[in-house]
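Running this now, will post back.
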Amino acid sequence: MQARDIMISPVYKVKEYDTVRAVIEKFIDHRISGLPVINDRNEIKGYVSDGDIMRYIGKHDDMIISSLTFTAVVKGDEEAYDERVRKLMKVNVMEIAKKKPVTVPWDEEVENIAAILGRKQIKKVPVERNGVLVGIISRGDIIRHSFK
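Update: finished.
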């Protein structure tokens, strides 16, 4: 069995020039937790997940960086949580998306995809053919097709 046999298509996605507001709206409307980011030619340019959003809005503690020659303090959050959330809505999606997401070719064997999802500890992987997004596969898709 290959990726094309179990992939979900069409794919919910966002464009590389969209804001995080568009991402969050799709997360809520479609009850999903991750989206490929594409350009106008449907080429995969990134991947944004709920984890990327959590890292942005979550509390950032002060960090102390110390070496033999200097010590520095990097300040954590100076803005309130509500302000970080409000600010994030206007941010371009590519500022928080992973720029080089894991992808698989449409003719990849499902057992290899299962290994990739497990090894990389990711929930979904975009499927591409000739550099263009054609589908997406989640852990659940593999489990459903493997054990039906």
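Residues 20-30 form the longest helix (11 residues). More later if anyone needs it.
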